[in-house]
């Protein structure tokens, strides 16, 4: 059973930055971040494999950077140039990123961390 513990959310003004962290127990899978805003479906933000291959949602390309420390089984999401529309609960996840770029999330989720961007 993979356990995921997230940290790093908070309140920031538009244009600011935040860094999220997610520590996983015993995971060698791809790790990623989803987010869910009120009244909206959960959406993929970014994922990274243990080999460093990444995938980003178009809405965050150029602003967010996902990275990973395999020795610590920890994934990070550096979020820059934040916008009010980035406001959501961010969830850590593990899954499979195929060679064709399709991500299949497993049913292992963190508790979520709130990110609020004020205008």
Structure description:
With 119 residues, the protein is an all-beta fold. Helix content is 0%, strand content 55%. It has strands at residues 4-7, 10-13, 18-24, 30-36, 43-48, 54-56, 64-69, 74-79, 88-97, 103-109, 113-118. The strands form 2 sheets. Strands 2, 4, 5, 6, 9, 10 and 11 form a 7-stranded mixed β-sheet that branches. It is globular. The model has no long low-confidence stretch (mean pLDDT 94).
In total, how many beta strands?
Answer: 11
Distance between the termini: 40 Å
Rounded average pLDDT: 94
Most strands sheet:
7 strands, mixed
Rounded Rg: 13 Å
Order of helices and strands: EEEEEEEEEEE
Unreliable sequence segments:
none
SS strand fraction: over 45%
* Class of secondary structure makeup: mainly beta
What level of helicity do the residues show? under 10%
What oligomeric state is this?
single chain
What is the number of helical segments per DSSP (H or I, 4+ residues)?
Answer: 0
Shape: globular
